Amino acid sequence: MKTKLALGGLAVLVCVLLAGLSPTAASDLRLPAGGVNLAPYRYWTGAYPFVDTAKMGSAWISTTAGSNVWNDGRAVPLGAYGYPSQLAADQVARSLVFTHNGRHYPLGAYRLRWSGDGEVELSGSGAALLSSDPIAQTATYDVTQTNSNGLFLDIRRTNPADPVRDISLLAPEPNPSGSTINARYAADLRSYGVLRMMDWNGVNNSTQSDWSHRTHRDDAHWGTSNGVPYEAQIEVCNAMGQDLWLNVPHAASDAYVEELAALVDEQLATGLRVWVEYSNEVWNATFDQHAYARDVLRARFDVDSTPTAYGRRSAEIFELFADEIDEQDRLVRVLGGQTGNPWVLEKAIEGATVGGVLQADAAAVTAYFGADRDALYASYLAGEADVESAARLLKDGVDANSPKWRANHDLAEAAGLPLIAYEAGQHLLAAPGDQHNDAGYVAFLQEVNRDPVMGELYEYMHQRWKQEGGQTIVFFNDYGKWDKWGSWGLKENVDDVDSPKHLAVQAILAWEAASGGDLNNDGSIGLPDLDLLHAGYGTVYGLHEFSLISHHFGLSQPIVDFPWGQAATSVPEPRAIATAGGMVGVALGARRRRGRSLRHDTRAI
């Protein structure tokens, strides 16, 4: 049974429209409607951002030639850029690609190439050699079936005097423009305004301090604890026209920060901005960055709290970036807080205030919503839990967090900052222990995530966030394999085309983008703009109906409400509608998902 969740009236949508790329009440900072956190770049993920998939491979493991031993336990000596420097006579160095990612990788011709003196091959179930050229050091393999073990990149021989390196494995993805970015991946991300690279930066429990510690572009693998090379992160943002959100490692030296800022200033495309945040959730005691701020930064700055020390170091990092960024409007300085404890944000603001001046542009907390885990599990064990009952608990979770969002918003506003969400979405988790080990319960939580009601809950969360004064929402995260550790991804993998969470977020972004109206810049707002909206934002909705709404600036009550169900071709031009000094918005109205109609109404869940 598909569950329907009532999410409130159309008037709330007008508040949503106000948020698209317009000055905020707290400052003149221009903010996008939304962004997304990029999932960790690992061999087991269900998405591959780059056409060259060799970089996402696992660390090298040792296998024995001619045997079926998965890992023989021998060390693989590494040389420059993490490639094997030598191998024993019967030793094979293997890197896993797409292993245990749910068999989500493309079929077709894979092109392998390398440099150095040695033998490299692609192996795995369904991989067959089509052609090879030892002189050119290239080979083409036809992959005809997927397997849970994925594919294997094997170095079977390497000359210590000229070791194998620069391995590339191009996947059979359409790439008409020659871009290094996977076109399907780019299509999923093109509607956002900022990409948060927290996981790609590898900042949680980071050991980086010197600039030499970072991942280099020529490294064999980018799925390490140090993250993806900054150059590749910038490349993705440039290709997609998205702002870059960087999380600076907590122990990074001033020289590290200066080098990073200079790199961004040099390589980030004109018109794009860099959002800078010191580490991630320094308030969270489970991370090493919290201990660093508590034990090192508090003493360095002689302050009485860890959030104050975090704020002070943030201000230093912001200043280092400002010294390197030529155009100051390209820099967005973000201070993080804790949703459930506004004191954290208050002290962070205090720490980031230097010489009486607050060194920040935005405050950020999370916009997650969850359910009482023990209550839901007890209901499940009693045979009483279903998608509808879980949805009710999740809606209660949104309502419970709303006053916390408001409290943080009021703190930020008092300091002259807009409040944004650095992470957001469902937080439906199995608790460690019995819940984690109950496969049926974990499957039930995934069922809730796959039901269209979850998309409606995202819309409801978004509306409540806006009502409490929140601005940009950066969702967590783009892709993610769902398991007992959570169902974080908006999409489970690159092949997931009908995820309610992803579709809901695309609809939210489309609504907000529509506040500008004249998307084709022809001087009027009409059906061609809706065509662009549909094509440009990658939604899968049919444009069955839409609403024209005009309103007083800053108010949420609509003056004109287009009749639901009326043919779109009969809609008048919005600029012909008189408004009291207001704004005009074009919004998608009723949408049909999986054959059913979704409409906003005022019934309680």
- Assign the structural class, choosing from mainly alpha, mainly beta, alpha/beta, alpha+beta, or little secondary structure: alpha/beta
Give the helix tally.
Answer: 14
Radius of gyration: 25 Å
Strand tally is: 23
Low-confidence segments, ≥5 residues, pLDDT <50?
1-26, 517-521, 536-605
- Estimate what percentage of residues fall within beta strands: 15-25%
The major sheet is characterized as: 8 strands, parallel
Using the alpha-carbon principal axes, give the shape.
globular
Q: Order of strands in the sheet with the most strands?
A: 17-16-13-12-11-10-1-18
Instruction: Give the termini distance in whole angstroms.
Output: 16 Å
Classify the helix fraction into a percent range.
Answer: 25-40%
Layout of helices and strands:
Blueprint: H1 11-17, E1 34-37, E2 61-64, E3 91-97, E4 108-115, E5 118-123, E6 127-133, E7 138-143, E8 151-158, E9 165-170, H2 183-189, E10 194-196, H3 198-201, H4 230-240, E11 243-248, H5 254-267, E12 274-278, H6 288-301, H7 306-324, E13 331-336, H8 342-351, E14 353-354, E15 357-358, E16 362-369, H9 373-381, H10 387-414, E17 419-426, H11 439-450, H12 452-467, E18 473-475, H13 500-513, H14 527-536, E19 546-551, E20 560-561, E21 583-588, E22 591-593, E23 596-598
Parallel strand pairs: 1-10, 1-18, 10-11, 11-12, 12-13, 13-16, 16-17
Antiparallel strand pairs: 2-3, 3-8, 4-7, 4-9, 5-8, 6-7, 14-15, 19-20, 19-21, 22-23
Helix pairs in contact: 1-12, 4-5, 5-7, 6-7, 7-8, 8-10, 10-12, 12-13
